[in-house]
Amino acid sequence: MSISTPGPFHPVILDDVRGAQKMLSGVARATPMEGSRHLSHLVGAPVHFKCENLQRTGSFKLRGAYVRIAGLTQVERAAGVVAASAGNHAQGVALASSLLGVHSTVFMPAGAPLPKVAATREYGADVRLEGQVIDETLAAAQEYAHETGAVFIHPFDHPDIIAGQGTVGLEILEQCPEVRTIVVGLGGGGLAAGIAVAVKALRPDVRLIGVQAEGAAAYPPSLRAGHPVSIDEPTTMADGIKVGRPGDVPFKIIGDLVDDVRTVSEDALSSALLLCLERAKLVVEPAGASPVAALLSDPRSFKGPVVALLSGGNVDPLLMQRILRHGMAAAGRYLSLRLRLTDRPGALAALLGSLSVVDVNVLDVSHVRTDPRLGLTEAEVELQLETKGPEHCEQVATTLREAGYTVMG
Question: How far apart are CA 221 and CA 272, in angstroms?
């Protein structure tokens, strides 16, 4: 590999990332890379998953947290560290601190998923539940740092954090030297910036694409403005990239080195998570599945070989249940219908018989006969069906209409 000529000044350079890689030896795992036959077929070129969902603590966050805390002075270490996070950063800081013998206090929102709270405690942190939203939690952590002298460990806006996350980029080049495109989820920007520093220094020809959720896409307006701008009330199921404002430190790096920033819908995120689970047998959180969502949304726009970074796998089981149902609906695997039929003995059995002809699985039936909206001889039935895809959904609806049923949606 040849090293590119120096570009604009950045607070993190290749040597910083290489130094972080040495520091993380024996601490962070060199996570595996797995091929995806399904996505390779869609893209028309090899597609590989970089599986940071299999990293210690379940995400890439351990890398940056360890490098940041390891770089503290003895005086700073003695004062301890504090962080604010709903999940991945919390666990990364907790484990990194324990490995380095530093006391950690982690503030988490009061509604944080119980498995993430429990894991953070098990990694050794003193967990405090403060605030209903992450901004309130962040304020509480910063106030604690001011009062106690503990060092605040920012999740993405620090050169050491960026250097640590950039080690993922070095591993990608080692594991897939022929890579042409790297796709990575983009929240505050620490991960994408670190990978960009490492990859563009060694392989400036590699295309880097950041992916944001449509409801939490602060980078497109910020890049247009030329400086970080905030968006009001970011909304997405992908809490790992649910950031309302880009970090000051990673912003310039991303503006200079990342080739494109794309956005994906919630339906695409759900479908991507479902694909990872069904086709790759990998548990991936919505933020980690965002690169896959981008590939599914416009597969032929990527030059291969492509590496899609699965940045994390920490997903609450209850959220996973809802996301999978949403993803199956988006993929045409669930169909919800309301129908009107004549209220007479055997009418419901006849309806279910019509469904058996088209080989659909009935998950739930709600039969209403007393609603004032209904005529004297009418009944309404709401069906939850398991189907085989969009074409099958249309076949089911057509069959019911041809049988004389009024399909209301």
Answer: 25
**Cα(49)–Cα(110) distance, rounded to whole angstroms?**
33
How many beta carbons lie within 10 A of that of residue 294, not counting itself? 27
pLDDT in tens, 315-338: 888 888 887 777 677 777 788 888
pLDDT tens digits along 158-178: 999 999 999 999 999 999 999
Angle, helices 347-357 vs 390-402, to 10°: value is 140
Identify whether 311 is a catalytic site residue: yes
Rounded to the nearest 5 percent, the helix, strand and coil shares of the chain are 45, 20, 35
| Of 50, 59, 61, 200, catalytic | 61
Among residues 40, 59, 97, 311, the one annotated as catalytic is 311
For 66, the token pair is 């360890």
The residue with tokens 């699985």 is 361
Residues 273-297 have pLDDT tens digits of: 989 998 999 999 999 999 999 999 9
Identify whether 50 is a catalytic site residue: no
Strands 181-185 and 207-213: parallel
Cα separation of 86 and 237, whole Å? 13
